[in-house]
Structure formats: C-alpha cells, structure tokens
C-alpha cells in the first residue's frame, strides 16, 4: 500500500501499462519495522457512523417501471454476447491514516494512480467480499471508493488486470491482517490485481448516493446501501451508469488517465468488515 513500494510509484499524470506476464502478487512484502511503515492491504473498515450518514434520506424519484437487474452475470466471462461488461464492481479503501498492529493501512486513489505495476487488492477477510473478487474477470471496471474519508464516497475508476489468486498477505505474520488459521495447502483468501483508470473531479459522496437510495430511487437496491459493511461490492449496469452521471454533475466529467474510453452513461453517445454481517464465519473462507 501507500509507502510500501516507494520505488515503484510514479506521478498520477500518466497511467501505467503492463505486460500480461506481470504478477505483483508474487512480490515479496517488505518487513514492517515500525509504525511508520504501511501495508498494501485494502480491506476498508466500515464505521457505523459512516453507514448512518443520511440513512433515511431519499429523493422524490419516479418509481422504476422494471425490476432491478440481477447481480449475477449470465456467463462466467461476465460479458454479454456483444462483449459488454455485465456486472461492475466497487472496492473500498481508506485514504486517511489508520493503524492496525502498528501498520498504517491508508491507501487512496492517488496511491493507486502512482503504482507502476498491478496492485494486489490484498487483505480482504470477508467471505462474501472475497467471493466477489473471485468473480471478477480481467478487464472488468470498478469504482474506487474512499471509505471513512472526508467525504466518504466514490473517488474514481479502476480496472482488474489480474484475476483472483491466493492472497499471500494471509500467511505473513507481520501483516496487519495475518490469518493464523489460513493454510497454504488449503487457502481461504484471494485477491485480484488492479490498475488506475481515472479520478473524478469530485467524490460522489455517500450522502448523495443514499439520497438516491430511497423507495423508488435509482440506487434503491445498490449493494453499497444494502450491505454497508461489505468492502467489495457488486454494481448493476444501471447503477454504474447513474453514478457516472452523478460524477459528471459534480464538476469535471472524468479525469482520463488512459487512452481507452470508458463506457458512457445510458442515454449518451459514445472498514472494519464484520463477517457476522453476512451471516458467515471467518473460517468459511471464500472457496
């Protein structure tokens, strides 16, 4: 995470390009010698205070004429017959300093922008969040969410460049989220590799999102709202498009950092994560 790979950071002005053979998950994690060192773990703590922000706020939206689409892709590739992505993602990380076992676990979208190799989204220890990562496919887009930030909300976009592999941080006794019950012969935890795509001109904050999540709102069924403690979320295509529209309304459309165009919104042309909240025990893993 931020500070753990200073030699591989670059300025956010230029987005990285990687060869298919790159594999940052195999890199050795530096030993953490004091509280100033940070880890690359990404699991965000979701405070009750954040979940409660404007929880009852709603907008006078017109009730949808159709039921929300499924959160399950129709194919293992997560692509429609025309090649369009079916399910999008939302991954949370904390941009402000917070210490676990003497390790600063802060990681922001600017930190991701500075990475010169695929960044492993490590440290996720919730079965449902881990299963969501295992469903990700190379090339998938997702939102980068600043958790417990000022403000908390969607800060930009990332791309999956490496599909799920064993999360090596689970075996590192010096890691902030070492899992002593995890065994190499039968791994429970996995992580994907991601890269920076773009940063919004302004964060689409949680209050705004919840403002559209009332009865009949366009984000009424969003997993972010329904399961606020989950650090890796699924996002329906219509929710993805709507949040992109909100990002456009908040100032700059998108700060493009790569030459590839992002999907346009519809209508346009071209935390402390609690396994108990999901009804599953930590030892269930995400197999």
Automatic annotation (TrEMBL):
The entry's keywords: Nucleus, Phosphoprotein
Name the UniProt record assigns to this protein: Thymocyte nuclear protein 1
Region Disordered: which residues?
Answer: 1-82, 254-287
Keyword Mitochondrion belongs to the record: no
Q: Mainly localized where?
A: nucleus
Q: Where does the UniProt annotation locate this protein? A: Nucleus
GO cellular component labels: nucleus
Q: Which residues form the EVE domain?
A: 88-246
Asked whether the UniProt record includes Phosphoprotein among its keywords, one would answer yes
One Pfam family name is EVE
Q: Cite the record's Low complexity compositional bias ranges.
A: 1-15, 58-77
Q: Where is the composition biased (Basic and acidic residues)?
A: 269-287
Q: Which parts pass through the membrane?
A: none
Q: Which organism is it from?
A: Paraphaeosphaeria sporulosa
Give start-end positions of Basic residues composition bias: 32-43
